[in-house]
């Protein structure tokens, strides 16, 4: 059960008060999705109470980004971040996949009227990249929910009247193109200060294409508007992936033709060229290894193989990914080692200068999803890091949070050997977990995580360099910074001020210098330079 709302405009008490009232009357809801302007010109006083933790949103709330210059400052990280407890900024564009399998595509901002696009606007490139990330997935049928702030242009074609809104002039053509391609079951938008629930429309051509699910477009008014127009919408939805196919494609009696039919006819059918991400990956591998003094071939041709073996491609991301090495968004100055299937990078805003991440080069969400060859190289990196840190009088603590994350990140943090024992570390994690009603269980030393967690299962796990492991199956909410908070606590590293990475981020030149130093020191232990 979900709730969606229109422009909040900073009226946080009004919207959260209304949510509490609905929950008291109708039972709990899983999340609140906010489209349009979440912040307004007079937001600061109310927002300060939530930002500081004095007040808390009653349910997990997910918001889109700024639609104007005035509210840009409320969104510190374009890739999305937690703004306050229970309030999350989804990011510029992408797909949020809940633990239930529900897919929510989102696009922040308004359509750019100039180039380069302002930070509060999206361009044709943004839409194309979001479409490509989803449409390239095999057997793509559509997304469950699409969130945009602007209406799609021409949404009223073949439909019931939108009142005073002229749908042929209002809204964004790029959003129409996005909706036509992604085929959402629900599409929410705002900004026009009115409520409009369009009749459901088809996503297939009758007698020409196989029947597909319908789309319901719903525009919501602004919160607390004087005209009492509807601004909050309650609905129940089962993930498309969990539905019976026949039930999914049932057509309601009032279904209409697709308002973007003309767009669909005009859509190019030619094969897409090599994407920018692939070009960037090839270029990056060459440049990076040249600086290392060693160029590693990536296609087998320089090894003398006339017919190189084709490796199985990893799954593709369902949105822009900041950790897939081929992605332009990767901060490559932080990369310190590249293997065949994995790479090491310094953590941005690390707990210490040698806090590193082990990441798969391809797109995998968790350790459970890794192929055998990728898992083997992860194990090699762990062994190399153990030897490296032990040479410096340290032991490492590794943790993974497979919850509200798209790409596997194994956080590896060194702790001085003379500071605490491995037993101290375990006890600290367990004690602080109990304080937050988190049940951390010790699992056998040589057990594989895949033995205790199935694919798609949200979890958190800790691993010591002795092989000891602690595991928690996430069944509801989970503190995003829990692993860092425990390690930064007085009982271990005694640096509680560094629990939030955003408070620790350094300037790019300093980060680059730290990466060079780590790369130099790690070189004798780096198997990727010898393989």
UniProtKB/TrEMBL annotation:
Domain Cwf19-like protein C-terminal: 436-527
GO BP term, example: mRNA splicing, via spliceosome
Domain of life assignment: Eukaryota
One term under GO cellular component: post-mRNA release spliceosomal complex
The Cwf19-like C-terminal domain, residue ranges: 310-418
GO MF terms, alphabetically ordered: RNA lariat debranching enzyme activator activity
Signal peptide: none
Residue segments, region Disordered: 291-317
Record field: compositional bias (Basic and acidic residues): 296-306
PANTHER family in UniProt: CWF19, CELL CYCLE CONTROL PROTEIN, CWF19-LIKE PROTEIN 1
UniProt similarity note: Belongs to the CWF19 family.
Name the record gives this protein: CWF19-like protein 1
Organism for this UniProt entry: Orthonyx spaldingii (Chowchilla)
């Amino acid at each position: 059960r979900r709730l969606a709302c229109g422009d909040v405009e900073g009226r946080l008490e009004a919207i959260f008060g209304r949510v509490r009232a609905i929950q008291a009357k109708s039972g709990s809801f899983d999340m609140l999705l906010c489209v349009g302007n979440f912040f307004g010109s007079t937001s600061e006083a109310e927002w300060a109470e939530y930002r500081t933790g004095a007040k808390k949103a009653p349910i997990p709330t997910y918001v889109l980004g700024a639609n104007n210059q005035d509210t840009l400052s409320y969104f510190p990280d374009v890739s999305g971040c937690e703004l306050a407890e229970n309030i999350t900024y989804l990011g510029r564009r992408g797909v949020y996949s809940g633990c239930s399998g529900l897919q929510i595509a989102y696009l922040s901002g308004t359509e750019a009227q100039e180039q380069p696009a302002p930070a509060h606007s999206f361009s044709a490139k943004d839409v194309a990249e979001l479409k490509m990330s989803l449409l390239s997935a095999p057997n793509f049928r559509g997304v469950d929910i699409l969130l945009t702030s602007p209406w799609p242009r021409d949404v009223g074609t073949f439909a019931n009247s939108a009142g005073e809104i002229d749908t042929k002039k209002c809204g964004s053509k790029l959003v129409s193109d996005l909706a036509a391609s992604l085929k959402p079951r629900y599409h929410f938008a705002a900004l026009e200060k009115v409520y409009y629930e369009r009749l459901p429309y088809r996503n297939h051509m009758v007698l020409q294409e196989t029947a597909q699910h319908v789309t319901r477009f719903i525009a919501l008014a602004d919160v607390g508007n004087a005209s009492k127009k509807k601004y909050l919408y309650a609905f129940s939805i089962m993930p498309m992936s969990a539905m019976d196919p026949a039930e999914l494609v049932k057509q309601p009696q009032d279904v209409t033709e697709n308002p973007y039919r003309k767009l669909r006819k005009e859509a190019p059918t030619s094969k897409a060229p090599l994407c920018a991400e692939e070009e960037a990956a090839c270029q990056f591998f060459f440049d990076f290894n040249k600086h290392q003094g060693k160029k590693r071939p990536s296609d087998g041709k320089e090894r003398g193989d006339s017919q190189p073996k084709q490796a199985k491609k990893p799954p593709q991301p369902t949105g822009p990914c900041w950790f897939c090495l081929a992605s332009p968004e990767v901060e490559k100055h932080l990369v310190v080692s590249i293997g065949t299937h994995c790479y090491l990078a310094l953590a941005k805003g690390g707990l210490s200068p040698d806090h590193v991440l082990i990441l798969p080069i391809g797109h995998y969400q968790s350790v459970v999803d890794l192929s055998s060859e990728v898992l083997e190289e992860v194990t090699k990196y762990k062994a190399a890091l153990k030897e490296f840190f032990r040479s410096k009088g340290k032991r490492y603590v590794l943790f993974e949070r497979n919850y509200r994350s798209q790409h596997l990140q194994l956080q590896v943090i060194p702790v001085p050997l003379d500071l605490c024992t491995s037993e101290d570390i375990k006890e600290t994690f367990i004690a602080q977990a109990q304080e937050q009603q988190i049940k951390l269980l010790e699992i056998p030393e040589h057990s594989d995580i895949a033995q205790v967690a199935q694919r798609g299962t949200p979890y958190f796990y800790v691993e010591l360099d002795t092989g000891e492991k602690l595991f928690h199956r996430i069944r509801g909410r989970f503190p995003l910074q829990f692993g860092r908070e425990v390690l930064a606590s007085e009982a271990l590293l005694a640096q509680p001020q560094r629990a939030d990475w955003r408070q620790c981020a350094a300037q790019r030149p300093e980060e680059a210098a730290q990466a060079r130093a780590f790369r130099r020191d790690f070189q004798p232990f780096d198997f990727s330079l010898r393989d």
